[in-house]
Amino acid sequence: MAKHETPARSDEWYTPAYVFDALNTRFDLDVAYPAHANPEVPANHFLCSNSLETKWRGFVWMNPPFGRRNGLAPWLNKFFEHNNGVALVPDRTSAPWWQQYAPQAWAILFAAPKIHFIPGPGVTASSPAQGTCLLAAGHAGMNALCSARDRGLGVLFYPWRST
């Protein structure tokens, strides 16, 4: 945590509706739906607990907890094993988890300007200190990120893939 960041009782940050509007898609499953959930998520089904132990089906939306150091690794591991969805993560490009998982993305959209999240219970700031990006896995994920780019949500990159 940087000096300018203040610890909160919760790391729940809800994705604002304009992000989903830009993605212009509907998800089959939100795999990290918090207890005090964001009603704006356009998904047919929601996992509120045991997400990492539950089988994911269909096109998924993932806004996992950003909290603990390397806490994103198990989420990203499962996301890329599933290989069909969009994940919202911090853009910590020098972090070991980023170096491991970003090359597996079909596309990466760096959100610009910075996304201003809806704070959950116990969160006093209007947004995390770092920027965020969206990672695509699969054709539907890539199409959603292309839509978001076309609607001005950010800059889209395609990682070099050897396969």
Task: Give descriptors for this structure.
163 residues; alpha/beta; two-stranded antiparallel sheet; 4 helices; 22% strand
List the helices and strands and how they pair.
Elements: E1 13-14, H1 17-23, E2 27-30, E3 43-46, E4 60-62, H2 72-82, E5 85-90, H3 96-101, E6 107-111, E7 118-119, E8 132-137, H4 138-150, E9 154-157
Parallel strand pairs: 2-3, 2-4, 4-5
Antiparallel strand pairs: 1-7, 5-8, 6-8, 6-9
Helix pairs in contact: 1-4
Describe what you observe in this structure.
With 163 residues, this protein is of the alpha/beta class. The protein has one domain (13-157). The protein is built from four helices and nine strands. It has helices spanning 17-23, 72-82, 96-101, 138-150, and strands spanning 13-14, 27-30, 43-46, 60-62, 85-90, 107-111, 118-119, 132-137, 154-157. A seven-stranded mixed beta sheet has the order 3-2-4-5-8-6-9, with helices on both faces. Strand 4, helix 2 and strand 5 form a beta-alpha-beta unit. Helix 1 crosses helix 4 (138-150). It is globular and about 40 Å long. The model is unreliable at 1-9 (pLDDT under 50).
Q: What's the total helix number?
A: 4
Task: Tell me the domain tally.
Answer: 1
Q: How much helicity do the residues have?
A: 10-25%
Which percent range describes the beta-strand content? 15-25%
Rg over CA atoms, rounded to whole Å, is 15 Å
Class based on secondary structure composition and strand pairing: alpha/beta
The geometry reads as: globular
* Unreliably modeled segments: 1-9
**Mean of residue pLDDT values:** 86
Strand order, sheet with most strands: 3-2-4-5-8-6-9
Query: What is the number of E strands?
Result: 9
The helix/strand order is EHEEEHEHEEEHE
* Distance linking N and C termini: 36 Å
Q: What is the makeup of the main sheet?
A: 7 strands, mixed
